[in-house]
Amino acid sequence: MIKKNKFTILVALIITYLSLANSHTFDSVSIFNSVPDFDKFVHVGMYFGLMSVIILEHRDTIKTTRQLFIIGLIPFLYGILMEIFQATLTTTRTGSVFDALADCIGILISIFVWHWFNQAKKIKSDNY
User: Fold this and answer.
1) If 83 and its partner were Cys, which of 6, 94, 95, 114 is the partner (CB 3.0–4.6 Å)?
2) Do residues 108 and 76 make contact, with C-beta atoms less than 8 angstroms apart?
3) 3-class SS at 46?
């Protein structure tokens, strides 16, 4: 199971580090300070990436869009867990419902991109 999900686990570990690291770690990244709510875009990107890796690692077993949405619960619940950990385990971070919503948006974008890609691929193969 670990071998089949090695990239998912790697991305999840990176997200864990980025979520729980001291917030001062990122002070030198000037875009965080100059763009309001830039962290929400980071959340969208991280969870888009996580869901995309999950989809790619399981692309042969995912048959329906319904399955995609059910699988999407895994990174969504993981995102909520990270927000709880930020609120309870760190001193320089706070948990945020808006961060969890941004996580959800990233997951949904990944699902819709995969669905669109599969539909385009199906139409192309039907034409040949």
Assistant:
1) 95
2) no
3) helix
Q: Which two tokens stand for residue 57?
A: 């690692």
Separation CA 1–CA 51 (nearest Å): 17
Structure-block tokens of residue 40? 């929400």
Residue ranges per structural domain of the chain? 6-127
pLDDT digits (tens, 9 = 90+) for 21-45: 987 777 677 666 677 888 899 999 9
User: CB of 99 within 8 A of CB of 37?
Assistant: no
Q: Which amino acid is at 101?
A: L
12 close to 78: Cβ distance less than 8 angstroms = yes
pTM above 0.85, yes or no: yes
Ramachandran area for residue 37 (φ above 0: left; ψ -120 to 50: alpha; else beta): left
- Rounded to 10 degrees, what is the CA torsion of 75, 36, 23, 13? 20
**What distance in Å separates the CA atoms of residue 43 and residue 113, rounded to the nearest whole number?**
17
Residue identified by tokens 């077993």 is 61
55-97 pLDDT tens trace:
999 999 998 889 999 999 999 999 999 999 999 999 988 999 9
Question: What residues contact residue 88 under an 8 Å CB cut-off, 6+ apart?
Answer: 95
